[in-house]
Amino acid sequence: MQVASERVSLENILYATDFSRHSIEALPYTLSIARKYGSTIFAVHVISLSPFPASSPTLALQAISSQAVREAGEAMAKLEPQLKAIPHEVLIRKGDVWNELAAIIDNKGIDLVVVGTHGRTGVSKLLTGSVAEKIFRQAPCPVLTVGPNVSGEPDSIVDMRTILYPIDFSSESLAAAPYAISLAQENAARLYLLHVTPSPVNASVGASLTSRLRTLVPPEARLWCEPKPYVESGDAAQKIADFAEELDADLIVLGTKHVARLAGAATHLGMAIAYKVVSQAVCPVLTVRGSA
Predict the structure, then answer these.
(1) Residue 115 contacts by C-beta under 8 Å, 6 or more apart in sequence?
(2) Do domains 8-116 and 149-292 have the same CATH topology?
(3) Are the C-beta atoms of 115 and 126 separated by less than 8 Å?
(4) 221-237, pLDDT tens digit by residue?
(5) Looking at the whole model, is its pTM more than 0.70?
(6) Distance CA 171, CA 173 (A)
(7) How many other CB atoms are found less than 10 A from the CB of residue 161?
């Protein structure tokens, strides 16, 4: 099966921040992408009211909320010097964080969400219902996650030389192919296709898998990019993270499963590989969600 290549459109970018160090570290990546693609940035902070007890008097709750809004405005103002040269809109909302972000994604026609993750919480936090996990699982558009181990220069995201695209041949992983191919084409980047098997395979099976990887890239794309297929064995997440580090990759592109809002533990386990890659990778990870 070949995948058609199409240009990636990134007109509107949502940069979600809670003003933590890790979310602030994701801003330069957002800026670099916006400059390259002529994007508009929607810098968003949502004040969650959930920590406030339901028994709080209304006036006290309003006072706390007003203070939180002022503090958020002050924190966002500190980001303005970096944002001012790029078309942008600052949005401060109150309510359930994911619901507010989802509404903005829908209303503003967001093409990409950029988030930073916390090294302290890592995968265990993602698996227990954090906001980052909800974005990761439910965002209808691609999500660029700057994980706790990312160490490269932010400009590397728009001056990519090496892209790693892991594939397990599922429809979900194939959903990311247009992004991997288009980004490789636009950046004249080397495109590495990686398939990881649970255990070692013989030479014949390995050759068959390698050929299958190579044929995923359409002929027209091969005019500018000779895909480099690799078959490895072992723990998928660890192999992907290690391979990216070995290649000094600038970006990992992953296809992920569409997850229903009320999905349970089984879907958490199904997303575990992607979560682990994000938490371990030394470069940003672009996740593209498959169809429902």
Answers:
(1) 16, 23, 26, 132, 135, 143, 144, 145, 146
(2) yes
(3) no
(4) 766 777 899 999 999 99
(5) yes
(6) 6
(7) 15
